[in-house]
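re: ur question from earlier - yeah i can do the single chain one, its not a big deal. heres the input i used so u can compare w yours
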Amino acid sequence: MSYTLTLVTGEEASEPERRAAEQRFRRALDATLGDANLVLPTYSVYLRIVSTYGESPDVTALSDAEREVVEQWQAAESAALTAALGPHRYLDDARFEIGV
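and the output i got, formated as tokens:
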């Protein structure tokens, strides 16, 4: 299942810079989750968990399966952000939007 990925940032970036960051993010996300086909299903389940338990869910309140999804998604997103934006990724408000 393919997905779209868009870099949203207040920083000035050229189109080639944006595309390169999006490609780095996508490669790291796909690799960390194991396959590009796992991104949308994992992200969808993660969003359902967050909508039920809040943005930073108490892992003790989650089932084992929910906890696994949250941990997998957070690890994949962290790896992808580092790959795309470098180790100082928290210094600006860049984010990536994932869609169908």
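The beta strands are 4-8, 95-99. not sure if urs matches, ping me
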